[in-house]
Amino acid sequence: MQHKRRPRNDRELPKPAIADVLAEMGADPGDIPTGFGWVRMRCPFHEDRTASAAVNHDPETGGFVCHANDTCPRGDAIKLLQLGLGLTFRDAVKRASDLSTESGKGHSRKAPKRRASDLLKGML
Question: Could you tell me the pTM of the whole model?
């Protein structure tokens, strides 16, 4: 006897602006560009004297990573909502959808893109 497969749901997950998610968590989205669309910020998951985390505000590849230790979460806007606000995946997707709707299509802020050669000029 064969089991019937459930129909696959091909809906895309909402992609709110990561700055909106950080604001929802009460975190400052940072303003120190590091290049390639990433911006340094203080990690909202632990005390920081210096900015140890980075956030990418790009609408398609936006993400968050903390370089201080491996116990901090890393991921996209939905993962941040899950871990930062203690939501289930389903609730985080719903909240992400609400955030996307509140800010139009989301993506309210993009970090300036810089080339590696521009970064090297500042070092030399």
Answer: 0.66
